[in-house]
Amino acid sequence: MEKFEKLTGIAAPMPLVNIDTDMIIPKVFLKTIKRSGLGVNLFDEMRYDRQGNEIPDFVLNKPQYRDTQILVAGDNFGCGSSREHAPWAIADFGIKCVISTSFADIFYNNCFKNGILPIVMPQEVVDVLMKDAEKGSNARMVVDLEAQTVTTSDGESFPFEVDAFKKHCLLEGLDDIGLTMAHVKDIDAFEGKMAQERPWV
Amino acid sequence: MTAPKTLYDKIWDAHVAHEQEDGTCLLYIDRHLVHEVTSPQAFEGLRMAGRKVRAPEKTIAVPDHNVPTTLDRVSGVIANEESRIQVEALDKNAKEFGVNYYPVSDVRQGIVHIVGPEQGWTLPGMTVVCGDSHTATHGAFGALAHGIGTSEVEHVLATQTLIQKKSKNMKVEITGKLRPGVTAKDITLAVIGETGTAGGTGYVIEYCGEAIRDLSMEGRMTVCNMAIEGGARAGLIAPDETTFEYVKGRPHAPKGAQFEAALNWWKTLYTDEGAHFDKVVTLKGEEIEPVVTWGTSPEDVLPISAVVPSPESFKGGKVDAAKRSIEYMGLEAGQKLTDIQIDTVFIGSCTNGRIEDLRAAAAILKGKKIKDGMRAMVVPGSGLVRAQAEEEGLADIFKEAGFEWRLAGCSMCLAMNPDQLSEGERCASTSNRNFEGRQGYKGRTHLVSPAMAAAAAVTGHLTDVRELMTETETA
Questions:
Q1: Do B288 and B184 form a contact (C-beta atoms < 8 A)?
Q2: Which residue in B221, B243, B324, B470 has the fewest CB atoms around it within 10 Å?
């Protein structure tokens, strides 16, 4: 996995609450057996009409948001299905950070596996960041994972919380399976113990 | 003396294979369920790294999301090429990696969350995961069960563990008795109506109380299935005699002395007196009415006697979301829910595709016909549910009423197979999500119980099922 570097980029506002995984990537695109290439279908039903033409009003279709790297979104972003196609599509589009007041658990977790940083901020901070995002390509937001801060284009800085282990993995671009394989003896021992205590499993 | 523990605490503690100083754990996984949509990239990852499946005997695969449910499927060909490729990939991966497998041609095939319990793979006190958010279903057995993404599917395949931090404990108590015509689906929707779709985020829910105890295993699975719709990764119900009775004798349940040994442990799986919950929600069973959803989020729940709300009655970001929902659903604020005309009825899914669900719907449909022009289908949750329903005469009731009687699969719950709504088509559905486009592009979904779906099929509009029940049934 790629290391998460300090990010300076365009932020797009999506204030709608409960943006679900069916909105992020509709099921017709789940039939792929690959991880790549989903960015073009990110938010497909909001982004294109039935003929495949772009809907000009949709935020990511506007000229100033085409190179969006940060999404500022309404509450409960990523609710619904466990499909990792959602973060795959987000990452493939080029978005590396999503900021909201809350995220659905499975989606939140899936982000870290794909080099995306989801940031939870209180409502009043999300309101400020949403306003800043509305400035479009004239503004650049800065996300510093190392320092755990988001800074608006006006230089106003807000701290955020992130699990120390998840932060470490994202900064270093660590592969989870590789990390766990280092504990294979613990897993062997656990299985040995279980074979005695709960043999029916 | 150790501190009192919740059921979740007990199952968690029994599965920690390694713990870091910061509380990050390697949680051992007892059962890994796999379907065709979220697994191909995971198997491919194993292949590329030259890894094996660590515990193929604890891994169970079944295709369900993509498979056609029409009767011509017995010819074995899936017309949609992408769907066919995905199902073939699962066939190949299951064989290559040696995991337990129920192919489309097997009578035991069905929706993964119905097949697991039915075959006795799911047992109390286990950890169960699947690349599918409705894995929460298995919590009905007092198993810690939740959905994972594809990277985690690969992680579990390779290591039989997950890197996890513990969630918080939430208790949802449903006191008293349910009134006639009110079912497990109404409970679980009413809870989401109360807590909102983010209310359970960061929690594992334990459902308890008299109304939960009174439910069958099928009903309990319906309740836990939608824990995820309330934001909770997992829902749990402490195992009891109802659970043990259901499990006993299933193909993969322990037998003889092993069953007795298991039973001894299972009986310790309950929340201790005085254990701490971080959040508590209580609903009175008697006060729950048959409910329906009016909007495009499962939290948009109201009793069938209500009217479509006005967006201004909400707060914050929900005002705009409600406006958008009402427009998408083609409704007007103030409109009576019972005045909403229905085009299609779908009975099935991992929420409501079990035998008890089909019995409840058939009880309403017996001797009746569906409304002229109504499109109605029953998609049993597994081949075995289908066979049992045929044996009990339920299939005949559905067919005589005008329903299509399908083969097992996820079908119109998420419309990845050919069963889809067309633009503007309005469906009373026993599934779990009413998101925009979920059942087809611009399709409109109202979530209901199987009995309420049957009632809507008969009258042609959303209907209080109690109006179709006889006096003895409602007494």
A1: no
A2: B470
| Residue A52 pLDDT > 90 | yes
Q: What is the DSSP letter of B354?
A: S
For residue range A95-141, list pLDDT tens digits in order. 999 999 999 999 999 999 999 999 999 999 999 999 999 999 888 99
Q: Chain B residues with CB inside 8 Å of A31's CB?
A: 37, 66, 80, 82-83, 85-86, 416
Which residues of chain B are within 8 Å of residue A102 when distances are taken between CB atoms?
Answer: 198, 201
Most B CBs within 10 A among A21, A180, A184, A197, hence the mutation to make, goes to A180
* Contact: B149, A198; criterion CB under 8 Å: no
CATH of the domain at A185: 3.20.19.10
Of A26, A74, A198, the CB nearest to B265: A198
State chain B's mean pLDDT as an integer: 96
pLDDT at B1: 63
Cβ atoms of residues B124 and B269 within 8 Å: yes
Does residue A171 lie in a domain region?
Answer: yes
Model ipTM value: 0.94
Longest alpha-carbon distance in chain B: 67
pLDDT tens, position by position, A6-31: 999 999 999 999 999 999 999 999 99
Query: Between β-strands B100-101 and B25-28, what pairing exists: parallel, antiparallel or unpaired?
Result: unpaired
From chain A, the residues in CB contact with B232 under 8 A are: 105
Measured distance CA(B231)–CA(A149) in Å, rounded: 27
Q: B89 vs A186: CB contact, 8 Å cut-off?
A: no
Q: Which residues contact B271 (CB under 8 A, 6 or more apart)?
A: B4, B5, B6, B7, B171, B206, B208, B238
pLDDT of residue A2: 84
Number of domains in chain A: 1
Q: Which B-chain residues 78-117 have CB contacts (< 8 A) with chain A? A: 80, 82-83, 85-86, 89
B201 touches chain A (CB under 8 A): yes
B316 vs chain A: nearest CA distance in angstroms?
9
Cβ contacts of B65 on chain A, cutoff 8 Å: 30
Q: How confident is chain B (475 residues) per 10-residue block, as mean pLDDT? A: 93 98 96 98 96 98 96 80 94 98 97 98 98 98 98 98 97 98 98 96 98 98 98 97 98 98 98 98 98 98 98 95 98 98 98 98 97 98 98 98 98 93 97 97 97 98 95 66
Measured from the Cβ of residue B103, the count of other Cβ atoms closer than 10 Å reads 17
Which B residues in the span 402-421 are in contact with A, Cβ-Cβ below 8 Å? Answer: 414-416
Residue type, B282: T
Q: Report yes or no on A41 lying in a domain.
A: yes
**Residue A1 is assigned to a structural domain of this protein:** no
Inside any domain, residue A156? yes
Sheet holding A68-73, edge to edge: A117-120, A97-100, A68-73, A7-14, A141-144, A149-151, A157-159
User: What tens digit of pLDDT does each residue of B167-183 get?
Assistant: 999 999 999 999 999 99
pLDDT digits (tens, 9 = 90+) for B147-204: 999 999 999 999 999 999 999 999 999 999 999 999 999 999 999 999 999 999 999 9
d(CA A124, CA A146): 23
Structural domain of A124:
6-197
